[in-house]
Design a protein that fits this description.
Layout lengths: L2 H39 L4 E7 L1 E17 L2 E4 L5 E6 L6 E2 L4 E5 L2 H29 L5 H27 L1 E3 L4 E3 L9 E2 L6 E4 L4 E8 L11 E5 L7 E13 L5 E8 L11 E18 L4 E3 L2 E10 L2 E15 L2 E6 L6 E5 L10 E3 L21
Parallel strand pairs: 1-21
Antiparallel strand pairs: 1-20, 2-11, 2-15, 3-10, 4-6, 4-9, 5-8, 6-7, 8-10, 11-14, 12-13, 12-15, 13-14, 15-19, 16-17, 17-18, 17-20, 18-19
Helix pairs in contact: 2-3
Length: about 375
């Protein structure tokens, strides 16, 4: 090969080595300076919100969703068929026990009653005559017995007429409030025809279910508080009055009944609300806001804000939790009173991360008690 050509290749190779060496060398210098600059800046802080671990009174109570039922309620229907001749109530009215609501045509029965009453008077007169004659030994004992039987039959006929006439009337079986009228004048009705719904509102039942594991905590007489959304009077008090006789095999729940005063008729059958049963004395517990608890495959943990060498840092702590109620969760293991736990911003954290705590503008979570809004869990 020509020496001149070889010399050119050597020069070109040397040039390329110098060129690429300069490029990579410059990049290495820039990377080193950047790394040094970042090291000098330190780890960036993560802004979080935090709240202290508080020791608080934790009431011993159970909570559930309850359905309201009338102590007494019925859809009134006639006992006999007939035509409506009189209606003596207004829809939605309050009525007293025994009050006449609907009258059916009883003209035929009243005519029969007059006839049987006349027969009763005649039988009574004959019986009196037979008793007088029997005392005078003018008639036999058999004749007297026949007169007594005739009188008894006549009296039974009158009683039957009165019973039939009563069955042609629809009366309130108990004091309560009526629903909407279902019949009209002149309408022919029978025992399957609905006349009006009658419900007793005061007192009223709250019926709910409790898991079988909590059955031992229940006893009749325990105070009960019912919360109903949408009512001006949000809270109603009463007592637990009955516990179901068996546990339902499908759900393993037991049905429970509480009785509540309802003098103003604010509560209505069919409503639902959150019921709280006080099952005993409260206890002192450590509690944190619900948002402080984080979950992973290994269990539950929180981030605790501690003072480090160069500022505040977040330390991860595994915890064991208990009941949750009104935005608070009981911590049974892993924390001490006074420690600060991160309540928001955990997604940006890792163990040992430098943090800054934002000033809290939100109200502190309320203590766990039955004065809070319904809907919490236990």
């Amino acid at each position: 090969m020509d020496k001149q050509l070889i010399k050119r290749f050597v020069i070109l190779g040397a040039f390329l080595v110098v060129l690429f060496g300069g490029i990579f060398g410059w990049r290495a210098i820039v990377a080193a300076r950047t790394q040094a600059a970042m090291a000098g800046m330190g780890t960036p802080q993560v802004t979080v919100s935090a709240a202290p671990v508080r020791q608080t009174e934790w009431p011993s109570e159970l909570q559930a969703t309850a359905s309201l039922q009338a102590v007494q309620g019925a859809m009134l229907t006639p006992q006999l068929a007939g035509m409506v001749t009189d209606i003596r109530f207004d829809s939605g009215a309050k009525v007293e026990k025994g009050q006449l609501l609907v009258q059916l045509n009883d003209a035929t029965q009243r005519a029969q009653l007059q006839n049987d009453e006349s027969g009763l008077k005649l039988a009574q007169t004959k019986l009196a005559q037979q008793r007088t004659l029997y005392k005078q030994h003018n008639v036999s004992q058999l004749a007297l017995q026949e007169a007594e039987t005739a009188y008894t039959q006549a009296r039974a006929a009158v009683s039957s007429d009165h019973a039939t006439i009563a069955k042609l009337q629809v009366r309130a079986p108990f004091t309560g409030h009526l629903g909407l009228r279902q019949v009209s004048l002149g309408q022919y009705v029978d025992s399957s025809t609905s006349v009006v719904n009658l419900q007793q509102w005061d007192p009223i039942y709250a019926v709910f279910q409790i898991p079988q594991q909590q059955l031992a905590r229940l006893a009749t007489g325990q105070p009960v508080i019912l919360g109903v959304d949408g009512l001006k009077q949000a809270r109603f008090t009463g007592k637990l009055t009955a516990v179901g006789a068996q546990v339902e095999s499908g759900t393993r729940n037991v049905q429970v009944q509480a009785t509540l005063a309802n003098p103003d008729g604010v509560l209505r059958p069919g409503m639902f609300g959150e019921v709280t049963v006080r099952t005993g004395q409260g206890r002192q517990v450590l509690a944190v806001p619900d948002s402080a608890i984080t979950y992973n495959t290994y269990g539950e943990y929180v981030y605790v804000v501690e003072q480090g060498k160069q500022g505040l840092v977040a330390r991860q702590k595994n915890v064991k939790t208990g009941e949750s109620r009104n935005g608070l969760t009981v911590v049974t293991r892993g924390l001490q009173a006074g420690e600060r736990v991160v309540t928001s911003g955990q997604v940006k954290l890792h163990p040992g991360a430098t943090v800054s705590v934002a000033p809290s503008t939100a109200a502190r979570p309320a203590a766990a008690s039955t004065t809070q809004a319904p809907g919490s869990r236990s």
